[in-house]
## 1
Amino acid sequence: MKKKLLSLVLAGAMTAAVVTGCGNSASGSQTSDGADSQTEESAADSQTSDGASSGDTFKIGGIGPLTGSAAVYGVAAMNGSQIAVDEINAAGGINGMTVELNFQDDELDAEKSVNAYNVLKDWGAQVIDGSVTSACSIAVSDKTHEDQMFQLTPSGSAVDCVQYDNAFRICFSDPNQGIASAQYISENKLASKIAVIYDSSDVYSSGIYEKFAQEAASQSLEIVYAGAFTADSNKDFSVQLQKAKDAGAELVFLPIYYTEASLILTQAADMGLDVQFFGCDGLDGILDVENFDVSLAEGVMLLTPFAADATDALTVKFVEAYQEKYGETPNQFAADGYDTIYTIKAAAEKAGITAGMSTEEICAALTAAMPEITVDGLTGEGITWDASGEPSKAPKAVVIKDGAYAAM
């Protein structure tokens, strides 16, 4: 098991990174405007364009929730991955190999995620892009470690997602998000009395809350109320909201997913609770919740590594390509998926991966290459990794303004 090194480049970089927004460069990430069309229905067959050689192939298996309550995450990660695959193939592939992407649905269920992995293994996957969510990524990592297949999760943020040497991630870990959130709230003087509503049955939510609570104490933030819910009690939040109100909370921290957050915002409005709401990357997707009044999310802040309104060349090009291909604005998970594919490309080129190598040989070569590469991506400029699997990059925050995410 890896030694857990929490890459806390956050404290000093936090304010500067947030003020400047996405300072990404286009120089290290994308090269072409691949244009093949993909839909959810064709995810299992998602593939290629004509720029790469037609002989050898490099098979990437993707896993995430394409249906169900977290489908916004999985579909976005799949779509962002596909855009990167299209661009790479149009530019000649990876070491001359055509890239094939096969993305499987796990429905936010760990057992189904393992089943999806087995499908991809039978298909001939050589690396894994996923799973998109933490519990599913952890379950799959047990299998990839056993099989010695390289795994790079775009957004699995729980500590144990990268517990094995063959597993890396694009996103920040849960502890990093909890610590960074407390630092940001304190440094920007958003509030001094904080209430927290979190999911104690979820490793993502409880992991962020634990580190947030620890860091809040050192940042002179008072947690006046902490209310938990579980997967079996995630519809009615009136008790938690009333207790937060009675405790005098000035800000409610929501280290949870967007579905529950939309219910909390709706119920808070119904009871006249007027406070600031602040979340992490799990809230990304709240603007796409069916039948949710997005005006209720106005002013909500969240830590996220990507803002679609950033003006750097790479973001502008990606957003235009995504909107043209899928008819909507990409979220952070789409950017995570895009950076996942380009990171695999960078590591494969550094390692000199060829089609004739076994899965185990590819895994060993990519694992060794990861700490030696630097990627300028959508979710950070100059991203590096250490052997623990953790990325090092500066965090950013966005605010929901006029029904859209705006860089802060």
## 2
Amino acid sequence: MGHHPFNPEHLGLTRREFLDRCGMGFGSLGMAALLGPDAVSAAPNSPVSPFAPKLAHFPVKAKRVIHLFMNGGPSHVDTFDPKPALEKHAGKMLPGENLKTERKTGAAFPSPFKFQKYGKSGIEVSEIFSNVAQHIDDIAVIRSMYADVPNHEPSLLLMNCGEARQIRPSFGSWINYGLGTLNQNLPGFIAMCPGYPIQESQNWQCGFLPGVYQGTYINTRETRLDKLIENIENKRLPLADQRRQLDLLKKINVRHAEQRGKEGQLDSRIESFELAYRMQMEASDAFDISKEPEHVRKLYGDGTQGRQILIARRLIERGVRFVQVWHGDGQPWDNHDDIAVNHRNLANQCDRAIAALLTDLKQRGLLDETLVIWGGEFGRTPTVEMPTPGSNAGKINGRDHNHHGFTMWLAGGGVRGGYVHGATDEFGFRAEEKRMHVHDLHATLLRLLGFDHEKLTFRSAGRDFRLTDVHGNVVKELIA
């Protein structure tokens, strides 16, 4: 009787590889069954899906994320960080020199909006977010954020990927890699935007992580399912025929991969085919808000923001791990002119829908397990921006970019509600008390999701990388 030819490479198999390969992988499948569905290994070459749910480093409440991204940089002094001292110095130069920003700024520019206290916590919120303010006792407002530079592109990448210049995996990709997804028929990481933000797909890139963890982009300008998700339906072949076609394609690809060793890009391509097939069964339901009761649709309101934020809730309810919701095309919150008009309009577009999301999540018992993040890539100056040819219309009623100090807020997912963390100076120019860098934010978010930010790593180019690189401290005051 013939024997399998000796292969010297088999002498170097690890225990995991041995279990993975023996009996065509039944060893690892048995181990996965023993460990349970939440502890499935995503070992290389594993027959188990890389999307399978995985355990974090320690048990926590937060199991999923909705990131509401106000791209362009909302003004903290007009939203969640009131500065009455600006009224006193209105039209006058601030004491001391203005901090350096991208463009020249002038005198103090008080907010055109009124602030008032809300909830038992008495946290002050601008009138333009009066609906969100009704939930302030569930919200932790971080008033001491700061970033590195006052430019959109590097600040977007820093906020999304933890690195302003080099190609690195996005936060959503890290979560998708670390936790897997709870629904194998939908992507684990979805980025929705009516159009594209600047830097486009770099904001949800997977970097050096396997391609299966890349964010899936959805253009929410579209309302029809076949426009929202291209090629979601194969009109020529029924599902059974598609399955046979994919099985044949997978056999050919696996044979191709075996001849070339581990090939991450090919594995990702195979998984993308499989996911596209499975999505036909569930995506049409998840993205169809007409299946929601009328009172729920009214709660979120009409318009793009109401629709995409409602879809976000439907997605996380169906097991999608990370949903990023961008406000709009380009950088809508980048108001160098007419901030009184533009910020009010922008807030009117999303205030009701964000408040509805928090209400809806709470009523469904999902808020405790869902981490909601609100903010942009930086804030705006408390001083008026001076006319600059090619940059603004010269109206002297807008604000420049400000990375020295800005505000973000968190809700749900084990966050300490009704809490204000840190402070900017009396004018709102620079974070002064309990300063919190973007790296500290990422470390804290990972902690809320059950990870030690120093241990969630991926080896690339000979070193172990992480979202926070060599930085970041967990801000424990933000955790309930």
## 3
Amino acid sequence: MKRKFLGVCVLLVFLFGCGTIPTAKHHEEQTLNFVVMGDNRPANVFRPEQPYIYHKVVEKAVELDPVLILNTGDLVLGYDAYSQDKAREEFDDFEKATEPIREKNIPLYITMGNHSGYTEFAREAFAKRYKNKETGTLYYSVDEKNCHFIVLCSELENETSQITGKQLEWLKGDLKRAEGKHIFVTLHRPLYPKIKHLKDSLNKYPEKRDELAGLFKQYNVDMVFVGHVHVYNFSVVGGLGQIIAGGSGAPLAGILEDGAFNHFIHVIVNGDNIDYRLLPLENEVAQAAQLMKEGRVQGTLSLAKKAVETFPDHPMPHIIATAGYKSAGRTLEYNAEITKLLSILGSEEEVFFRLGEFCLTVKRLDLSDFYLSKALAMDNDSFKVWYTYAQLKTEQKQYPAALEMYKKALPLTHDHYFKKDIEKQIEKIGKLI
């Protein structure tokens, strides 16, 4: 059997290399292909929809007509799911973006990510939708032709960052039953993390990680697919192959040389040969935002227009285009984009807030101030506006105003993450005044 890593462009081959690993397996000549993707969650609570690039990943993956798709986890933000309704809303949005897969009846097997375990409501919503219907567990396996696919869960309650207990005992029996097949394993946290999450992956418990790796090697597991780190990375440790496929939409980690680009993996099994194809994707939204940050407005508008044409109802391309037209003084196009955003986001306050939040992230501070002031005039009790405005005033080094805004925001939220951050910012700013 040969593992062939095929980059789709010279740059990626140069940066990340390719390798061939022979094994002694001999399989009946059977062909199938499958896709691996994951870590597609939204960036933050203020951009709650599935990322633009995830829609593109889904579209391109479906075109390959795979026999199945594996998702390495982190479908939703999760940590803000403090009610059943909020958790349901987040997973509903994921499913809406995933409709092209469902419409083609392509089986989708999803391992649980840590973002689905932040709150009891998120955990419950994930389990209800994605646990195996026959076993009632979050770990299970499926067979397709000469291939065996194992879905593990690195997020079981009181067992995070490890595969242990009943799950481990089940795995031992399942691997034994799968002898003679190509075996592929997916779970969320890497055995061997890179770039980030170096202390909260399976290496947090090195002895248990090594036992698991030994088990995989004993049964000649072909590849372990993981996520958690928002990069592409391929490694072989002690003969065990691992691919981190965490580039389907969540904020990327590191730089390009670290594997920080949007991608998914296409695997083609043909008898004893397995081709692992790395498929990077152009993210027009991310590129347009970067150009806006650099003050290259015409380039911003060109990419935003392309993104609008690709997915006309996603808010981010329109937000970027609106900010670009405002900067360029193109009133007619600007007004048309405001109207479109209103139809997508539902209220003027949300439109102006989203524009203000985006302009803050790309350091267009005057524009951010313009939009956030409009949003605040429409709702003087909006936590997200006060909180974001406080960040803007901090960026502008207007510390007394920032302090007052953080104090306004604090009683407007029950979210522990935001409360802790605001208290930290108030203390920090207090020392600067």
